[in-house]
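From: lab user (bench 3)
To: helpdesk
Subject: output format question, protein + magnesium ion

Hello, I'm new to running complex predictions and I'm not sure whether the block I got back is the full result or only part of it. Here's what I submitted:
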Amino acid sequence: MANYFSSLPHRLKVQELGKCDFMQSSEFADGVKKLIGKKIVVVGCGAQGLAQGLNMRDSGLDISYALRQVAIDQKRASYENAKNNNFVVGSFEELIPTADLVMNLAPDKQHTSVVNQVMPLMKKGACLSYSHGFNIVEEGTQIRKDITVIMVAPKSPASEVRAEYLRGFGVPTLIAVHPENDPNGDGLEIAKAYCVGTGGHKAGVLHSSFVAEVKSDLMGEQTILCGLLQTGSILSFNKMVEKGIDPAYASKLVQYGWETITEALKIGGITNMMDRLSNPAKIEAFKLAEELKDIMRPLFIKHMDDILSGEFSKTMMEDWAAGDKNLLTWRAETGETAFEKTPAGDVEISEQEYFDNATLMVAFIKAGVESAYETMTCSGIKNESAYYESLHETPLIANTIARKKLFEMNRVISDTAEYGCYLFDHACKPLLADFMKKIDTNVIGKNFNASSNGRVDNFELVKVNAAIRNHSIEICGAELRAAMTAMKKIVE
Ligand SMILES: NC(=O)C1=CN([C@@H]2O[C@H](COP(=O)(O)OP(=O)(O)OC[C@H]3O[C@@H](n4cnc5c(N)ncnc54)[C@H](OP(=O)(O)O)[C@@H]3O)[C@@H](O)[C@H]2O)C=CC1
Ligand SMILES: CC[C@](O)(C(C)=O)C(=O)O
Ligand SMILES: [Mg+2]
Ligand SMILES: [Mg+2]
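Helpdesk reply: Thanks, we reran it on our side. This is the complete output you should expect:
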């Protein structure tokens, strides 16, 4: 099968990549009605499978799980996940023929195998959904023409899909209908009802395309969302220990620092995050971020180019064929880093101290969010999509690190995201070697103000504030956040 995006004429590539309409809440007035009384069968009960299934059942929908026979026989985690939550579980043969909607929530690497198994079993005119369009866009899978193919892609790790729903909110979601598979013309209505079932409509929904979702999702996860959080964690921790900061303190500052810093980002964008620093520290973080952006720009561009050309997916699929050799090696190596192996100390760190003693981490976030956004929007991805894939999702991933460090982040995200995260991290750390040589504890581990003379050049401060506030991501973000009226606080 050929890469679907690469096979499109240039005109359609541009059109699909730029598809992004912010949907009004009135468009969801029918709620889950379109799916009421319909049989919904989820394939796979892993991260997204369980979270989405729970939300949709709580929204009044009829959910059951089709698992592979071996998972049922061996009572694997997927079976236990579904059974312990009182869902009906069955084999593909038992459940797929009854389904009006089959939600394919197996890992991306299994999609071709899943589709090959479910397609002959699906009833005529049923609907097949994805939460990431990799299989359609990068593998070029063709689906039976009577089947409607939709995408409902939460811009969030699964744990937060459930947690935000329980908080009465949701996570921003991209919905799409595959142009090759909308035989009844009701794909969008099904996608909207599904999205309401997960709570996504409360946080903002973009009517997008499979192409735009895949290319932006891959870019976000490889760079700011996971790659740079991994690099920033390891480099920040190592630097503090090298300079004599207590490892237990350093471990805690990094593990919980991302969550605290990015909560400010979630509520009020980069402006609010930077405003949490003293004025001298803000100017320093701004300068560090500018330097980081200059150094990392070629790497961000390389990731975007490889994603657009299909080079990234080709390389990752080679690893799938090799039994995930690289993925498993890199996962094990991450587990051996000093940051992962050093438990967070039992020391009190106040909320403000996470900002004051981590100027460098704030700079990493600013540089990473802006670079990902700038690179995506320069490549034809629309601002709103780029915002969700950079600024909005960073706090949701940071929460996973607060729970159990990088292990937890890489466990919760998809294997596709994890693979791309390691690729970025391995290239980024050497790139930042010279930059890190100049870094001292004044910007990571200790309060910046203690080492500065406290003086601020007002002209410089005005310029810095204007540069932060006038960035396109801040303008786009303010509009999107204004629509998130039900957003709840995470860090009390
Ligand atoms: N993780 C996330 O937070 C996000 C994921 N996504 C997308 O959601 C989809 C699911 O990813 P994710 O939730 O991470 O997946 P997981 O790896 O967490 O879970 C996959 C589940 O699928 C089952 N499975 C594996 N192979 C098969 C197969 N051949 N047939 C049936 N079931 C199978 C596994 O169970 P068993 O091995 O026991 O059979 C497991 O329970 C992907 O498309 C991903 O890109 C989108 C947004 C975020
Ligand atoms: C961050 C990665 C992601 O795209 C996600 C949680 O949105 C994934 O694939 O896991
Ligand atoms: Mg994603
Ligand atoms: Mg992803």
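A quick orientation on your result: The first strand starts at residue 21 and ends at 22. Let us know if anything else is unclear.
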